[in-house]
Amino acid sequence: MRLVILGGGESGVGTAILGKKKGYEVFVSDFGKIKGNYKEVLIINGISWEEEKHTEELILNADVVMKSPGIPDKSPIVKKLQERGIPVISEIEFAAPFTKATIIGITGSNGKTTTTMLTHHLLKSAGLNVGLGGNIGKSFAWQIADNKYDSYVLELSSFQLDGINDFKPHIAIITNISPDHLDRYEYKYENYIDSKFRITMNQTEDDYLIYDADDEAICNWFKTHTTKAKLIPFSLTKIFSEGAYIKNNKMEIKISQEEFTMDTEHIALEGKHNMKNAMAATSVAKLMQIRKATIRESLSNFQGVEHRLEKVLKIQNVQYINDSKATNVNATFFALDSMNTPTVWIVGGVDKGNDYNELMSLVREKVKAIICLGVDNKKIIDVFGNVVDMMIEVDNMNDAVRMAQRLTEKGDSVLLSPACASFDLFENYEDRGNQFKQAVKNL
């Protein structure tokens, strides 16, 4: 069996290692450059590879192709594979059959990283032998090749779910759905929504789907679609006989005749959206039969996720907050919503078809100045130009942070929450967040 892998990054190299171990003839092809550390791994394992090209005669003879999530379906090589009827799947689809572990899969437009990390923290603190992977950390396939975990908590992007046929998590979570990555879905929101719901398409009556019952897109999907999985909703406003909700400042979770309650003030994560993330993760912990005392302790000591509303430093009584992970409008909505001081907002990057009007009321209420950090800021300036007193364009992070410092007074906050992808000026959102933190430390 010939396994061809498109993309020589974390998921590609992880799949190559697992494929080799399982007896496939493996070839890795990357249209860009492969990082040095990944090249070394391929060479040590005797796996053939190429970079900066896709050689068709070495690819179109595959029995199966694993495509890295960053490569769009409309790329020429993928189209040629599809025309020949060669299956093109994601790492998750390739790797899952090689493990008997319990799989918890988490998707959503926002909150999925926090929910994934928190779920992993809850299970690990309880002494479970649990791996963390998917869109974060070490490749899922690589972990299956190297480790023997009893369960995995996987963060799954819509791109990874697009490449599944048979994959099914025992417990699935959809944190929420808002327009994102529409450039990859023919600018049709319904295509993107359907993509997220692929997480439950193979689930049976023995599986669970945990979802945000306040989310309009999710509730609308249920009006015309069904899943066999047992449904566990969570909500800030509704109350359920089976599900998770907030009542009188208490988080309450009722699952299969069992109840769990905890005062929200003892939960380490702040903000309404994080209450939802906590309800989703705690629902998993209950399904996995984790003791109540362990859940309470883990929820109260969880550290949060880097680049997501991360408090960097307070300088001259001004709080600098790194929310570089906010790569869409909905994520920035949560960030602005959680601000309770006058805010200088650093925004901009590669626009993915954003509608900034959704932020209008929050910007009027909370933002005193906007710093545009992107190659093309026209859309942001058009929407907010008349709303804030001060609008400034910069083209690097040091200028953005220095300018922000000039515009603040004691008691203000500086919030990096770009609402955009980072690829115009940075390698990725981590690079953008790290540059922000460094620039703040240099003030």
TrEMBL record:
Enzyme class: ligase
Binding sites annotated in the UniProt record for ATP: G108, S109, N110, G111, K112, T113, T114
Pathways per UniProt: Cell wall biogenesis; peptidoglycan biosynthesis
Every Mur ligase C-terminal domain range: 307-420
Record-level GO BP terms: cell division; cell wall organization; peptidoglycan biosynthetic process; regulation of cell shape
Keyword terms of this UniProt record: ATP-binding, Cell cycle, Cell division, Cell shape, Cell wall biogenesis/degradation, Cytoplasm, Ligase, Nucleotide-binding, Peptidoglycan synthesis
Main location: cytoplasm
Nucleotide-binding found in the keyword field: yes
EC number: 6.3.2.9
Domain Mur ligase central: 106-284
Localization (cell): Cytoplasm
UniProt GO MF annotations: ATP binding; UDP-N-acetylmuramoylalanine-D-glutamate ligase activity
InterPro entries: Mur-like_cat_sf (IPR036565), Mur_ligase_C (IPR004101), Mur_ligase_C_dom_sf (IPR036615), Mur_ligase_cen (IPR013221), MurD (IPR005762)
Family per similarity comment: Belongs to the MurCDEF family.
PANTHER family given in the database record: UDP-N-ACETYLMURAMOYLALANINE--D-GLUTAMATE LIGASE
Function: Cell wall formation. Catalyzes the addition of glutamate to the nucleotide precursor UDP-N-acetylmuramoyl-L-alanine (UMA).
Entry protein name: UDP-N-acetylmuramoylalanine--D-glutamate ligase
Organism whose genome encodes this protein: Flavobacterium omnivorum
Lineage: Bacteria, Pseudomonadati, Bacteroidota, Flavobacteriia, Flavobacteriales
Gene: murD
